[in-house]
Amino acid sequence: MDDHQAIAQIKQGDMAGLETLVKRYQDRAIRTAYLVCLDVDMAQDAAQDAFLRAFRRIDQFDDRRPFPPWFLRIVTNEALMALRRRKHSAELPNDTTEPVLSDERPSIEEMLSTAETHKAVKDALQQLSPKQRAAVVARYYVGLGEREMADVFACPAGTIKRRLHDARQRLRQLLPHWVHERSV
Amino acid sequence: MKEIQGKLDQFAGQVTGSRDLWPEIERRLRKGTPLASRRAISSLRWVAVTASLLVLASTAAYAAGPILQSVYRINPNWNPAAADSSHQVNLSQTVDGCTVTVDQVFVDSERILIGGNTDGPEEMSLSPTKLKLVTDDGVDLPFVDGAGDAREDGTSAWVWAFDATAMEPLPSQPSLRLSFQLNGIPREKAPPPMAEPAEKSGDGSVIAVELSPVETSVYGPFVFTFTVPVSDTPSP
Fold this sequence. Notes:
The complex is a heterodimer.
Chain A: H1 3-11, H2 15-37, H3 40-56, H4 67-85, H5 108-127, H6 130-142, H7 146-152, H8 157-174
Helix pairs in contact in A: 1-2, 2-3, 2-4, 2-6, 3-4, 4-6, 6-8, 7-8
Chain B: H1 2-12, H2 22-31, H3 35-38, H4 43-58, H5 65-74, H6 81-85, E1 87-95, E2 98-107, E3 111-119, E4 124-135, E5 143-150, E6 155-163, E7 175-186, E8 198-200, E9 206-208, E10 217-227
Antiparallel strand pairs in B: 1-2, 2-3, 3-6, 4-7, 5-6, 7-10, 8-9
């Protein structure tokens, strides 16, 4: 069953369609939310909320377009809302849950290198404001255009441009090895 | 751009299939009332549904333990054990279809923690306003801190902290009056967290963010009076 068949099922009230989409996109949804929240538990909750919200808004989905970008926009927003619900907390959640590593076992050297990279990336992302982080995720991970992002985040395109610019500047300082000029 | 995309992909890729979301989503769909099926409920049936919800709301306090515990964990200054050493109040009030329950209160010489839950319209995002706590002889106890855990089904649990040091001398059983209103914004129109009134750019200048006017509904006021013993245990 492809995405559009699954969506057609949902619109007819058949939950099997939703189950298909959940199974197909849950990992990607959790990863997207994790990039914004930097917390596995919160990311899983946000992904879950995003599926429910997508289900409730399925009538708004344009069948002529692909499902993932539309859905991942919702995920990004849900992740931001999850952070907002935690806004009274003084700092980012202490993620004591280590991400579950994939079954593919790299060599020790690769693991060390990867661990260093992951830590550097996480540290860098934590240095961004939630807004900047969400903008980076929406642009570079989800692949949204600036106009779509302006729509998602309910702000002018100029604000999105500025937010991305500032985020890239910051990342370039923090991660000079992988954010080069040509990335801009 | 591909470099950033690749690194984000690699970084996010460490989080993998740790949990199957479907069972919980299915449970929530069965438990809640998804919009698609809600549309099929006639007005008459809504009366019965609303009446049932009001009955459920009156017992909500007894089911609030776990969610309150989770709220206590939000603030690093609060010990979840405070939820256990708190005095059970269990007072409920329903105004304009929104039910607020004050579940428990903890008082010591420094701090007053009030924990409760709200059960409002699912489509509204609610936030407290005009929060005020006074003693029975009129001493205003300043609000210090708060945390909440909102659920998409319209329920939320919260804990508010107030400064108790203004009560001098500290009575053994202070009588308190808590009042507040709830501001409701349709979830669809609630500004995303990124759309704050202003933000600073990298060079320190302030960039204005356009916000469209949003109609706000006000619920309340909610007023609760209660008398609680001062705890012997140290402030959580």
